[in-house]
Structure formats: structure tokens, C-alpha cells
Amino acid sequence: MKADRAGVLTGAHYLDGDFACGEGAMAAGCRFVAGYPITPSTEVVERIARRFPTMGGTFIQMEDELASMAAVVGASWTGTKSMTVTSGPGFSLMMENIGLGAMMETPCVVVDVQRGGPSTGLPTMVGQADMMQARWGSHGDYELIALCPQSPQEAFDLTIDAFNLSEIYRVPVLVMMDECVGHMTEKVVIPAAETIEIVPRKLTKKPVAEYLPYATNGNDIPEFARAGDGYRFHSTGLTHDERGYPVMSAECQKKCVTRLVDKIRENADKIARFDEEDTADADVVVVAYGITARVARMGMELAKKEGVKIGFIRPLVVWPFPEKRIRELATRVKAFVVPEINFGQVVLEVERCAAGRAATVSVPHAGGGVHDPADICNAILGAIK
Amino acid sequence: MSKTTERQQEEGLPGMDHPVAPFLRMDRMPHIWCSTCGIGIVLKCYATALQEAQVDPDKTSIVSGIGCTGRVAGYMKLDGFHTTHGRAIPFATGLKLGRPELFVTVFSGDGDLSGIGGNHLIHAARRNMDLLVILVNNFIYGMTGGQNAPTTPEMARSSTMPYGNFEPPFNIPHLVASCGASYVARWTCLHVRQLTKSMKEGIKRKGFRLIEVIAPCSTLYARLNKLGTGFDLMKFYHDNAEVRHDADTRDVAIKFQDSIICGKFVEEEKPTFLELMDAHYRKALGGRYVPMPAEGGMLREQD
Question: What CATH number is associated with residue B68?
């Protein structure tokens, strides 16, 4: 369906990434946000708190991030699209109920505007060191989706995509921004509501007597019933059967968790999204995301002057990882160079996919700033020696 | 009769002639609670209160955390959510705000609500959030094997206070009353009629309503403290419970094997979170204010 006009601020704006993310959520039809203030993400909820009462949305500032994430999962069970926004320390607290969201198969969106860590780290300065936490942060096996915008425009666009993906796959979807993108102000074009494609909550049409909340009927994704529509269903964070009833057995665990994992893994190619440039005859491929993708381009320009053939892969969806494409490229390039503002996280995934067929070079940065493009250039030059 | 109840009857499940069977998932019986555990009594009182108050079960949601009482959400034939440890209240807050027409009950234990969930308990009370909270207090962590709780009376033994508890416990009614709860009552599992009546009052009122129910845990609390069986604890309630409506909540703290003050302690008319929010935005924004619809903020295809 098309976006609800009330939430869409059509026009050309000069916005920072946080505001643009908030606008993306409202355009996507988000009408419930629970959050706890944390730098550098707070502007997202400030924007929403100001605009929500004019479009039938409710924002509540909860007592902590544990509560924020729990409230988001709860609200989503009413069919109301729901989101929370945080940064590293809050993201750690949210892991508990991100797991609940994954287990109950609850569509929702979590925005992490990454700052330097660990612990309180660098509250006002950039980091990209939550990427593996996004992948593995809650205990147990599950799969979810994480997107990485490189600009305020993409913060708007990808937040809409995050809501749509969460509806299609019934998972929490993470928008892994970084402080630079969050606080960078650029032109953001918000299109007319009629041109924004929205995936609505698809409610089951089954009669009450036939509905089982976790039956999939050969599909990957169970049909959704919302609280208050007479289905009187049960949902639990315990391992459960098709009725949503807890069953403590290895057999039920296998069935329940296999589906949670497979519904994303088996659709990974469909979900994967990346920009690709100049890979056809490349010797080196740079893989970068978020603000680092923009810095990497400068490093690549420097290296091109030295005559190196350089391709570029920029994952917009980092999880699930664009595994297939990296595997293909690994058979014909000499090396992958992976700059990121951490000590080497997504590079591990590139290395796994390259599987020794191409060299993998990490270009780490501790955080608090972005790479010097010369460092990326030197890594590229070093990779083909 | 609802369609789901018809389905249960067709399946020929035993116990379908029980008066509150339409409110229970009879296909999940027998339940997991120990013999002479008090939680089943509280659940029966709640189901009876729903029935007598003529609540629309289709618009009723129940949310539990983790623990013995946490299993209640799974046994009630309602939209039921068995959430993470301590997070029943914020989850329920999301449900209520996401679809304001729902009647939402939080049903959980003392450890879940006042231990790991203590921060949420006080803030929901402060906001006068529109939730009915049934807090079953058996003075101990039962599901995990009898560890000390924030409600364990001083000198009572638990598996992690093997020489007796030296920490002062919470006085639950005083805690939530001082934070702003608009209805606070306490009963024991023996006070079936009073508890049911109190639940009916709670159902009909708005805002943050909390009913603490003292319940026997014969397997752990009674055994570790050599108090006999669940029946002996019920006898103890009979001999030691004192009904004192409107008691000052400062005076209702529970000491080990001492009197248990019961009754309705707080009943106050004051605006709920949703009423405050609505009135405030109406005043601040006037005609620009668009409240969330009672049936929720789910957007539908517009024709």
C-alpha cells in the first residue's frame, strides 16, 4: 500500500541523519515509539515526539532501554508499527527483548546510532563497533536483518525499508547508523506519499477456530493475528509449537529455531542489497559501509592515481551478509580491503566468504573519528604488492 | 459462547464443565504448579472476576513475566503473552498504548515484578499507567529452586540465604502506593471471596491498580522454613491475617510468621497516563492534535 499522508513531510529538506531517520519512520507508518535518551541518537525521538501527536502516534519515554524494547515488542502485537532508537550502551540493554522479538516473530525496528565503545566510551563521537553485536548480540540462535545508511537521505530511505522488511519477515530489523551519519546535515528529498511503497501488517483471514499462531502451512512466515481481534492466542519466549504453547523438547527446539534461522538464511539473496562499482576488472575490491564507505571512496581515488584497478562493494544490508557476491568476486580478485571504525568486525565475514581465494585486509580504526583516506590508500597499495 | 470454547468442547477435553473453563486453555491442563501451590487459586479468582464483571474476553490481554506465576498468561484463554523476566509491565504498557481499547492485566510473581522488574513497577505506578497488576507473593523464587527474593521476610530461610535472610524486604503496597498507584489491595489465597471482589473492582477501575496476593509455596518456602504443607500455611493465614481496610501502607510490612494485614489500602480517583496525555495534547495542540484511535495505530489500505 501507499504511505499515509499524515506521516510524510513531502519536500526537499536540509536534515541531519537522525531527523531523517525519524521522518523515515513516520513515513513508513510507525505510530508507536518507546525510547530512552542517549547520545548521539536522541534527536530521532525528539523529532518524533514533536510530530507524533499530529498523526495519531504515541511516543513514550520509558525508564530504561530494557523497558523501551519490551514496550516496542508489546505494541507491535496490536498491529501498530513500532520502533525504538538508541546507541551502544542502550543497544546492549535491548538485546534481551530483541531476542524476545525474534522468538515471538514480532515486526519492529531498532535504530542504533553507533558511537565509540566499549562501555560508555565516546558518547558524542563516531564508532562502528556494534556490527557483530547486531549480528549475535542476543543469546541463542536467530537471524535478523541490519541496514547501514551512508547519508541522511539513506537514513530516511533505509528506515522505510527496515519497516517493510520487518513486516515481510516478522523480525526485528536494525538500522545501524553511525554518529557521523546521524549528525551530518545534507539535503533530504521526501517524496509524495503516493510514491512511497509501504508493506502493511498482514493480518490472518483464517477463522478463529482454525488459526494457529505459529503454523506456517509450507511458508516460512506464520500469519499474524493482533491482540484484541478475538483470536485469543498465546505467544511466549519459550520454545513453542504451532499453537504457541511451550514444549520443552529437543525435537520442538529443532523445529522452532530452524525456522527462525531459515526464514532469513534461505531468503538471504532476496534481502541482500549492495552497491557495486568497477568490479569487472578489479584487482582489489574495497568493502565498506556507513560513513566509512564515503571516506573509502577518497582513499580509492588516491590509489587509482597509482594505477590500481579498484572495485567497490557497499552493503546497504549488512546482515544477512552479501555472501554470494563476495564468494564470486573472491575467485577473480587479488584482495578485499575492509576499512571500518572498529578493530575488524565485518572483515571477518568477508574473510570467511573469501575463504583463502583472495587476500583480506582489515583497515581498523579505534573510533572517535573517521579514517585518514591515505591509510585506506596504503592498505590498497599494500594488498597488491 | 466463543468459537474457541466450542473448539475445546468439540475436542472433548476433560474439565470443560468447570465454571471458569471458558477462560482457560483446557488443552494445557494439567498445569505445572505443585500440589497446594496458591497460584491456581489466584487464577480461579481472576477468571471468576472476569466472568462476573462481564469483561469482553476478546478485548482482554494478559501479560506475564517469568517464574511460577509467569505461567498464568499461558493458561488463560485470552490474548496471552509470556514475556522476558521482569518485563511484563513494559510489554503490557506497549500493548495498552498501541491499542488503547484493550483491557490489559499483568499477572506475575514477586521476584519478577519487584526484583528484576522493580524499576518498571515503580515507573508504571508513577505514571498511573492503565494496567491491572496481580502480584502473587510467595516470598521466594520458586521456579529456580527457592532462592532469596526482595520479598523474603527477615530471618526466613531460602536456598541462597541458608542461615536466614538478613536483607530487609520490600513492603509492596507501600512501595507502589508511594509511587502513585491509584488502587492497592492485599489478600491471601485464603480470602477467595474478598480477592475476587477486589479483582472485580480492579477490572472496573482505571489507572495503575495492584493487588498483592500472599500465596503458599509448600515445595520450597514452607519446606526450607519447616512450616509444614500448603494447608498449614493456609491455616496460618486463617489465624494470622487481619483485615484492615484503609490501613496506612507504612504499617503493612510483612514479618516472618507474623500477622498479615489485608484489605483495600488505596482507592483514589486520578487521571491515568492516557487521560493525562490526551488532555495535555488537546490543550497544547488544539485542532492539530490527532489521538491514536482506540482500536490502535495500525494503518490500513485506504480505498
Answer: 3.40.50.970
